[in-house]
Amino acid sequence: MPKIIENIAKWICVTLNKTQVAQLVEKLNELLADPDTKYKQLEPNLPNYRKFTVDPLKPIKGGLRKARRLNYKKIIQTKKIKPVNRKKDNKNLPPRNMRCPHCKAPSDYLYVNNGKKAKQYKCKVCGETFHTEQKERKSEYRCPYCGYALFLWKRRPLVDIYKCGNKKCARYKEKFEKLNADEKKLFKKKSSQFSLRYIYRKYKLSLEDIKQKLFSISEIKLARSRYSLYEIGLIMTLFISLKHSSWETKETLKHVFGIKISHTHILNIVREVAKLCHNFNLKYIPKVPGYQTADETYVKVQGKQNYIWIAASKFRSIITSAIVADNRGEVPALITVNSALDKHLKNENEPFTFISDGNPSYAAAVQYMQTEYDAKIEHKEVIGLQNKDVVSAEFRFMKNIIERINRTFNHYVNNCYKNLDNLAHSVALAVTDYNFIRPHRTYDYETPIKLKELDNIILWQDKWAKIIQMATKI
Question: How many angstroms separate the CA atoms of 417 and 236, rounded?
Fold first, then answer.
């Protein structure tokens, strides 16, 4: 019995008395016996519908797309093809000296294929169409499956998308044969709902150009602060670790510790510490073995939805990367994948296994790393909330790890930021607190990353002070 039926039955028993349940059963039996009763229609099984896939093969660069060189004489002799039977008053004729570029058939076997425009012609011998100005065009990329020239399908600000238009392509045929009967029926009406052709994405920026610089660290004014490292550590403990507001932090410092400071000064200190902690994270988050997973969680900045992209490892659930972006596109996905790869402890016998959900941006980013930088990445997608495929069942536990970290981040961030910079500051500090300061019950109340410099420090404010001290020497 499905779980949903069991839950509904329990809810009915809790909501209705025994007499009402009996009446409900009687009514349901009447409806079941009535042939006019309408039931919920089961959704057709379309496993390939809107399924985004990325081809790992690189396109073939350069070269000409060579037209097929057929012998029209042999075709005419074999198929017994006669010249085009034209009407006497037909003035829309191909030029007498025109020949088919595919088989060299003369104009007697050619006819105009687009009416009065007379710009497209079709050959009766080989069945190919061509234009008056058609030439063997030079193509920047060719399909690795069939060698057919890729055409520029879509042009976006950051990426150009090329596509193979050959219906005889091995990749197209293989994908088409995998469609079931319902999918093939839908394909005739809406072919765009299926990804069957080879597609290549050419990014207009290099990886070095799009690496995000979260902070400008040219001026760090913390050294000129009149507050000691211990007092700054107290501020970070209250504001970040215990998630006090700037006003609550101000009042706690004043009435508990006897430290007078304005809430504006607190925010200034937090901003400067965030710059230091960003560099601290880059240096002291170690390379980790095993799988890594990533996901994005949204947060609002002035009412607009923005995203925190987080990558974490299977090993001790360490956060290896966390960035802020205003979209869920390929560029932030690329930065996340590259950052995770940088923190991967390489094993010559195994590729880097990266787990994500079905967001196509991850697949596009992995393809870019594989094709442009020869990165050895094995991408696994955990689709939906139920294990409907082998990969989802095998790597569901990794998805659970990143979802748990996303819930933890609700402790650090909220929906009242004024700009992305303030959100980025909170994210950098949250990563430091999560990895180096906050004890985790799963690891016997130890931090995910153990530093010998912090081993004998018990108080959180002292840990913050030590981290700031270490960060100033980077």
Answer: 18
